């Protein structure tokens, strides 16, 4: 059984910044209404390495412990929300580090997806793969308009999408749209994402996206925290429960897939392409 995470007492409204912490890779601030904003700040593209994944999970635990009214997730980059898993962590990897990478990603997904407080994301740039995964975990998605893309492109980088992530996507867009997109690793433009329901609304800029996210969190001002958290977890339990049972198998499959020579070759080509792109800029 996936442990239920209920907020048993009312959320506190804390004075501005009382919970604020700045880790190396993230920044957490709390406004005077008690809404926490967690900003990814691992330059240049917030790629998720072991340290960033672990710091995010720790900070989410802090947000829960301190009973913030809700959480807005965003990024400090001007054009990238998150580039997903750090590809260099998967290329010619040290197996212990690869294990830590996947275990930390599992922890982050489980913590954010089952968060007992309301969550929203202000997607202020590209959100491929793990970036899209974090957005999908939130209850409300606002994305800044522009030439950005969002989606689960794992198959394009040689990685099969795990069941729990397919389940997360199918809770947001139709199974048909999800199957077509995930099988081929398709990315959505902002307009396409809005059309299929992958995002809930667009924003003119990051400030607008954060304001819209906070407006969503304020919808819960008069809702009992226990009613909210239990209902949310019931909606998500059919994805959370099997995940909890299959964590070890999921980890072993990930390591098996990533260590395949053809996947290593593909990852090497992607790293090379990213380098060439930079050189051409
Ligand atoms: C059943 C079996 C179970 C197996 C389970 C397996 C997988 C589970 C699947 C899903 C779970 C969630 C995890 C998914 C896996 C991933 O996340 S893989 C990562 C996929 N990400 C990408 O493909 C994105 C690649 N990057 C880009 O497309 C672009 O960088 C960008 C994000 C669109 C930004 O473009 P921009 O022009 O602004 O920047 P640059 O491209 O110039 O990049 C700047 C800088 O950053 C480096 N970089 C970019 N992306 C990554 C990355 N993902 N990891 C590491 N480094 C990255 C790039 O190399 C540049 O570096 P520099 O040259 O040193 O400056």
UniProtKB/TrEMBL annotation:
Pfam families: ECH_1 (PF00378). SUPFAM superfamilies: ClpP/crotonase. It comes from the Eukaryota. CDD domains: crotonase-like. PANTHER family: ENOYL-COA DELTA ISOMERASE 1, MITOCHONDRIAL, ENOYL-COA HYDRATASE-RELATED. This is Uncharacterized protein. It comes from Loxostege sticticalis (Beet webworm moth). The lineage of its organism: Eukaryota, Metazoa, Ecdysozoa, Arthropoda, Hexapoda.
